[in-house]
Amino acid sequence: MSSVKPLQPTLSAAGHARALLALGAPLIGSQLAQFGLHVTDTVMLGWYGVLPLAAGVLGSSSFFVIFILGSGFAKAVMPMVAAASAQGDEVQVRRVARMGLWLSILFGMICYPLFWYSEPILIALGQRPEVAALAQDYLRLVGLGMIPALMVMSLKSYLAALEHTQAQLWVTLAAMPVNAGLNWLLIFGNAGAPELGVLGSAVATLAVQVASLLALAAYAGLVRDLRHVQLFTRFWRADWPGFAAVFRLGWPMGLTGLAESGMFQASALMMGWIGTVELAAHGIALEITALTFMFHVGLANAVTVRTGRFDGAGDYPGMRLGAKVAIGLSLLAGGGTVIIFLTLPEPLILVFIGPDNPEQAAILAIGTALLICAALFQLADSMQVLALGMLAGVQDTRVPMAFASVSYWLIGIPASYILAFPMGFGPVGLWLGLVVGLGAAAASLMARFWLRLPRG
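RESULT FIELD:
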């Protein structure tokens, strides 16, 4: 039985919206659940102690930076499988998905020494020795999860491209209580388990990654609609042309993600120059905006699949209307977020601040100002991630990488510095600079997509 679901070129705008939301809703839910895993780890380590929390945050953020770079190969699987599926080419579907998994394994093996010897690297980057030492212990364990984490992302891309999105949602949702339960046992030593502190969080994270990989691999290999693809049959056989094709498309996607995350890392560093309270407010505001941003990430993934399938079928009028509908949905959701940020900033921020925190008033005042900036931030950020999704769908990644890197590093970061320091706008100026960088990315990437879209 074929897993290919033919597109309908005559869909109306409402039809496009329904199809996009039907595909995108599980992807959005999966993104939100994945974010919930991160929040759970942070909160539970915060309950355990300050030093374990600092080491866990440092270790997880370091892992995430490397993961973002390697995830480009997993992301490349999505548009390539979508296009091959639209053409009915199941051999190409299998080749692309397998080589995405191969590249995930290879990248995880290559980067693991960075985790094993991370302490001197972290100290050289200005981290306190006791935090760096504990973060290295954490990374030596959690770094073993890089391969399963990237393979999970490759499988999610494969399944999404074939419009099997429910599985990844349920697997991620199931991971949340498992992760919380293992954290409760192993961080704190409850119910007779060993008290491992931050290492308990690492073990929980690794266990969840391996379990998620096994669950998704079983689904991809055994479910009736996908069994005929034979994804894992003779998995060890190399396909060097397929390997090269995924590599060529994927490495710019990884560097694009690294450039964007690097801009936010730089913003945190500059906010730390201003003050500790300002940095705390910055972190809270970023957590809030990251949560709402998950909607746009899930929508962008759905757009990548839809655009890839339109591209594979040569249906450019359908692609054009589908893109317009996606932009409208993203703006509608972004507008709702703007209203919430402008009208309810204090309740949102107070969720992250203990009532007995002596800095509560100062954090609240700064955080409120930053969420007002985030009203602009959200619209720009949603448009740039959606544009990247559409461009990935037509397998255009190298020029977008250059546009995004220039926007983030040569426009966004300098704008943040100038507005925050020479012009004296402080934290608000730093965030307005982020808006400038993301706005430049959104404008250039959207222009790239629409100018290259064939008229046929």
